[in-house]
């Protein structure tokens, strides 16, 4: 993934991940928080700037508002399809003022 990011000249990011309900059994392997932490560590090692990391459980406006505050245009996320719609609609509202 790092080579694709470099080829687009993307260096600054915000990362957003969904906090999982600990009462719900998780599939084998990494959970979202562990995967997120690994991604941030890998990006840092490759000298990318992760300006902000946000997590959410049931509200995304606060996490996305950091985009506008820090003028970050690239968001790396780890969340399910349902949350993807909410997150990208909220980001669209903040960026375009819709």
From TrEMBL:
Under PANTHER family, the record lists: GABA-B RECEPTOR, GAMMA-AMINOBUTYRIC ACID TYPE B RECEPTOR SUBUNIT 2
Protein name (database record): Receptor ligand binding region domain-containing protein
Q: Keyword Iron, does the record have it?
A: no
- Name its GO BP terms in alphabetical order: gamma-aminobutyric acid signaling pathway
Question: Does the entry feature the keyword Glycoprotein, yes or no?
Answer: yes
Q: What UniProt keywords apply to this chain's record, in alphabetical order? A: G-protein coupled receptor, Glycoprotein, Receptor, Transducer
- Domain of life from the UniProt record: Eukaryota
Q: Listed GO cellular component terms?
A: G protein-coupled receptor heterodimeric complex
What Gene Ontology molecular-function terms does this entry list? G protein-coupled GABA receptor activity
